[in-house]
Amino acid sequence: MNLKELYQEIILEHGKNPRNLRKTEGFNKDAKGNNPLCGDNVHVYLKLNGQKIVEDASFEGSGCAISMASASIMTDLIKGKNEHEAKEIVEDFLGMIKENPELKSEYLSEDEKTKLMCLSGVKQYPMRVKCATLSWHTMVSAFDEKTEEVKTEN
Amino acid sequence: MNIDQIKKEFPIFDEKIQNNDLVYLDSANSSQKPKIVVDRINEFYTKQFSNVGRSVHYLAVAATNLYENTRTSVQKYINAKDKNEIVFTKGATEALNLVANTLGQSYLQEGDEVLITELEHHSNYVPWHFLRKSKNIKINFAEINEEGEITLEEIEKKITPKTKLISITHLSNVTGAILPVKEITQLAHSKGIIVVVDGCQGAPHLKLDMQELDCDFYAISCHKMYGPTGLGVLYGKKKWLEELPPYQGGGGMINEVKKDRISYGELPNKYEAGTMATAQVIAFDQSIKFLESIGIENIMKHEADLVEYGQELLQKNNSVKLIGNPKNKGGVLSFTIEGVHPHDIATILDEDGVAIRAGHHCCQILHDKLNIPASARASVGIYNTKEDLDHLNQSINNCKKIFNL
Ligand SMILES: Cc1ncc(COP(=O)(O)O)c(C=O)c1O
To answer: Nearest-CA neighbor of B382 among B311, B313, B293, B282?
Structure first.
């Protein structure tokens, strides 16, 4: 186990100053997620344009450094992607957080992969995986226009 | 009292946990188990096992006697008037559900009010919420003051002519506040109001005397009392347990079963339907012996010293904010660190072998009131030392360092 790997500078920085921590004006998709075990909650907002491309993504909520950083990085890199690309990235990310050694999606730039890999330290902390994945599950739920709140228990 | 000696009675402290000595500060969640309790479970299963109360063979009779011995030990330990006022349950949660359910069936009426507090654990709120849904009773909340306490005055203020029942924690599992249960009971009884006490945190740490407290029901969680999991105790005044209907139906709780009628058994069988947690009940006798061998006065003194020490340490540590500052406080230190989420605190402390809990501790109402989503909680038991709290403090400093505070 390695705390330094979990709490990398970039995670701490995103955790402290999360990007896109706001509510997108004129959003057309949104969903709520919550982690009943720890009381963390997140509300993800998406604004898709006529071509179904994510024009803006944002989130509101509170949680630990891992969950805030994860939502922050996610909302940043999902901008400019369409639903299909976004969902593939989610799959790729969830696979990496659980077991895969690396990210494979062609829709991610090297720079984006490097950023996301900062969250890979979570793997060693099974109880914390849900912190990293809550906002991602919630985003999928927003795309799918699910009205039920997402609940992660891994 | 020699804490090192007492600690040696707990096998877990011989273990290395992720290469660290264990600093266990999560006893409010569940306590560790002394060897005599663990051994008793093993011994019962290997040498004495039988189901209780059903067969007439030697082992069944012996097991029944052992089972009933624990009931008597509990009765004495909490100074209940009658052995039949002790009912075994699967936990305090089930004990509280039993009370709410049976009072809901036969006593509480639509429009009646139940008064609880903002400090309550979900298991002393949700069962009453069920009655709010099914019987249209109303739930009122006594509010905490600045120190995280519930005062007698606040309770008095919230009582209305419709209040039929008050259900309160003995000791808050978040702020550590010890409630004036005896005084609240006196007040309540003077107005014909029933008092239910969630004694989960009270039972392991405070002197219990049911006849002095005079509450109508008291729920105990055995796994927080150096006892096995899957076991709780409901103390109920005999007149209530006799008057109220059964909670669950099945074997053991009946008197006579016919196709057209059923009559129920006498106390305490009436409330112990089905095969009970036999081994746990029998082993719990050893938990009581363990507590008695140290003496509750000594336990209270030791834990009060620890809390005072811990409180001082954490108060001096800037960026640590303690939750609540009750005058009368049990062994719970809940806190937040400005800029670090409680889950991050818990993960970092864990790396140093310091086991605490982070979250809302099943008290969402209280956390909403305090306007925080979660908190970190260190709680003590008889095996803790001041060094454990020093470790806690050092580990908190480590946490601050990682977060550049
Ligand atoms: C104050 C309080 N009430 C109720 C409970 C539930 O007890 P049990 O685990 O025995 O069901 C707990 C423990 O989690 C508690 O701390």
So the answer is: B293
Q: What does residue A133 show for φ and ψ, rounded to 5 degrees?
A: -100, -15
pLDDT tens-digit series, residues B8-19: 999 999 999 989
CB A34 within 8 A of CB B360: no
For residue B220, give the ligand 1 atom closest to its CA: 10
Domain range holding A135?
Answer: 3-144
Out of B269, B292, B315, pick the residue that ends a domain: B292
Instruction: Using the predicted structure, report yes or no on whether residue B117 has a pLDDT greater than 80.
Output: yes
Q: How far is A55 from chain B (nearest CA, A)?
A: 31
- Residues B239, B189: contact at Cβ < 8 Å? no
Q: Are residues B159 and B256 in the same domain?
A: yes
Predicted pLDDT of residue A154? 41
Write out the residue range of the structural domain in which residue B366 sits.
3-27+295-402
Mean pLDDT of B144-158: 98
pLDDT of the residue at A29: 95
Instruction: Tell me how many domains chain A contains.
Output: 1
Q: Does residue A96 lie within any of the structural domains?
A: yes
- CB pairs < 8 Å spanning A and B: 53
Do B234 and B99 meet the contact criterion of CB atoms below 8 Å apart? yes
Interchain proximity A40–B373, CB inside 8 Å:
yes
Same domain, B368 and B324: yes
Q: How far is CA B50 from the centre of its chain?
A: 29
What is this structure's pTM? 0.94
Q: Which atom of ligand 1 is closest in space to residue B28's alpha carbon?
A: 16
In percent, the amount of chain B with pLDDT more than 70 equals 100
Q: Give the three-state DSSP class for A31.
A: strand
Q: How far apart are CA B361 and CA B363, in angstroms?
A: 5
Residue from B87, B362, B379 to probe ligand 1 pocket by mutation (most atoms less than 8 Å from CB): B362
Same domain (yes/no): B233, B114: yes
Of B200, B182, B173, B188, whose CA–CA distance to B115 is shortest? B188
d(CA B13, CA A103): 41
- A87 Cα: distance to centroid of ligand 1 (angstroms): 41
Distance from the Cα of residue A16 to its chain's centroid: 16
Cβ neighbours of residue B398 under 8 Å, at least 6 residues apart? B348, B352
Task: Please state, rounded to an integer, the average pLDDT across all residues of chain B.
Answer: 96
Tens digit of pLDDT for each residue in B56-91? 899 999 999 999 999 999 999 999 999 999 999 999
Q: Is the residue at B33 inside a domain?
A: no
Q: Read off the pLDDT band of B135 (50, 70, 90).
A: very high
| pLDDT tops 50 at residue B314 | yes
Residue A77 lies in a domain: yes
How far apart, in whole angstroms, are the C-alpha atoms of residue B218 and residue A149? 36
CATH of the domain at A129: 3.90.1010.10
- Which CATH number goes with the domain that contains B368? 3.90.1150.10
Q: How far is B321 from chain A (nearest CA, A)?
A: 17
According to DSSP, the residues that pair with B299 across neighbouring strands are: none
